[in-house]
Amino acid sequence: MALNKSMHPRNRYKDKPPDFGYLAAKYPDFEQHVHTSLTGRPVVNFKEPEAVRALTCTLLKEDFGLTIEIPLERLIPTVPLRLNYIHWVEDLIDGQKQPRRGIDIGTGASCIYPLLGATMNGWYFLATEVDDICFDYATKNVEQNNLSDLIKVVKVPQKTLLMDALKEETEIVYDFCMCNPPFFANQLEAKGVNSRNSRRPPPSSVNTGGVTEIMAEGGELEFVKRIIHDSLQLKKRLRWYSCMLGKKCSLAPLKEELRKQGVPKVTHTEFCQGRTMRWALAWSFYDDVIVPSPPSKKRKLEKARKPLSFTLPEAGLKELQAKASASGGAGGSPVDSIAALLEKTLTDLRVLHKRVPCRNQEQSLFLTAVENTWIHGRQKRREGSRQLRELPRAPHCAGTSSQPTAAGADPLQPTEQTSNGASSNETSKDVTRDPNGEQREVLEKVSGEDVDMESSISTEAGQETVPKEAPAAATDPPSKRPLTPGAVEHFLFKCLLNVMLEEGDVVIEMHWVEGQNKDLMNQLCTYLKNTLLKSVAKS
């Protein structure tokens, strides 16, 4: 779970993710959805609705003593995300265990926010619902957990938010409201046709939910504006109004709407869990409320500057050193050998690179990626092998000479020759491995550039960085491309790769410098890691 470290500090899953193996052994209904990965770890397929439902029900039973039922055709909540929201509401109302009153707008079949709030903190909830199926399940889930004295589930008319729900309770002042609004405006957006960039990978989990749960006229933006409109009439009937958002791009226009309406207290936050991010907005008409600070930009920049890294254990370094020596790479220390193997892989991928000055017992490479040659490498190799097998075999002729293909070269592509007869790959290797020359100039360029690190991150829904069209240079053969990384005008990204020795292990770090999309560097880092680890496994 990539974002777990950014969870709310009190979230029980922040430092201790669910143990699927333990839960499978304890709960037979969950066991059938747990599989063993290639690395021997128990995993769950989050694209299967039955598996997601089983995990949610199991976590609620194991960690909170709650027993619930959810139909597959309605929204299946994830527990870590809902916990993040509950803990943030605790911060808003400044108290975890005091008796508080809250409203859950559109509680869903699971009724998860009231169940968690009542179980953890003894909060009283008014839970509203417009869908008949969700209302029936929510009522049943409250009753079978003996929480009817704390949770009141009410059926409200379609398009009702707060006004109609509070008509009968004119004297009660609520401490907060919560809402997980429908994110999408139509079916195409729900399927990712309009809301996701074409280069962004598909969601890692299944999208479940009824029509009223995932879609609303105008999407989440207009839905939350309706809650803002209600709050302008209710004002101090609630101390805090809050909503969760599925897109970061919804945050700015909603804050602007609150500013135009003169709302005095406004704050926001972000919920991080697994590979998912959500945002939340809260506002109040009370002068005495404590307003939690929003996430600081400084923390975001520090997170953005954190390098990607992986470790090669000491046990496998001898095999890698032997491979580097056999392929003509530098011998000697493990750092030199790993750096040589990385250079060879980068050359094969046509990623421009050159060594730059660094500390003793380290190696540093400045990388410039002009085109994405590492994605789907296995499929490309299989397709190449298939095409090679299907080629008609040439008959052996007396006057025909057969030259072996150079190691590592593409058998389907002719080797281009330079003016002195050397292949373009050899020319690229010689130039990019030159440890002198422009090293100092490149290092000064890297350290002297003012790079907006935050704008390069693309993990936020609705805020992906749109990569530019592939530059013309990417379509040229390698021999016609500039071989000096600093001289390339069109590129995907630039980064600094460091190879270091730490307590016998070799650590590889990749530091982002600039570019179109940081995810591309992440892909390359994974490719380099897998290439080196596969070499150890084969040995």
TrEMBL record:
Cell location: Cytoplasm; Nucleus
Keywords on record: Cytoplasm, Methyltransferase, Nucleus, RNA-binding, S-adenosyl-L-methionine, Transferase
Region (Disordered): 377-482
Binding residue positions for S-adenosyl-L-methionine: R82, G106, E129, N180
GO function terms (MF aspect): mRNA m(6)A methyltransferase activity; RNA binding; U6 snRNA (adenine-(43)-N(6))-methyltransferase activity
Key word RNA-binding present: yes
Bias (Basic and acidic residues): 382-393, 427-448
A Pfam family recorded for this sequence: Methyltransf_10
Enzyme Commission number(s): 2.1.1.-
Domain of life: Eukaryota
One cellular component term from this protein's GO annotations in UniProt: nucleus
Biological process per Gene Ontology, one example term: positive regulation of catabolic process
Polar residues: bias regions: 414-426
Function recorded in the entry: RNA N6-methyltransferase that methylates adenosine residues at the N(6) position of a subset of RNAs and is involved in S-adenosyl-L-methionine homeostasis by regulating expression of MAT2A transcripts. Able to N6-methylate a subset of mRNAs and U6 small nuclear RNAs (U6 snRNAs). In contrast to the METTL3-METTL14 heterodimer, only able to methylate a limited number of RNAs: requires both a 5'UACAGAGAA-3' nonamer sequence and a specific RNA structure.
Entry similarity comment: Belongs to the methyltransferase superfamily. METTL16/RlmF family.
Protein's recorded name: U6 small nuclear RNA (adenine-(43)-N(6))-methyltransferase
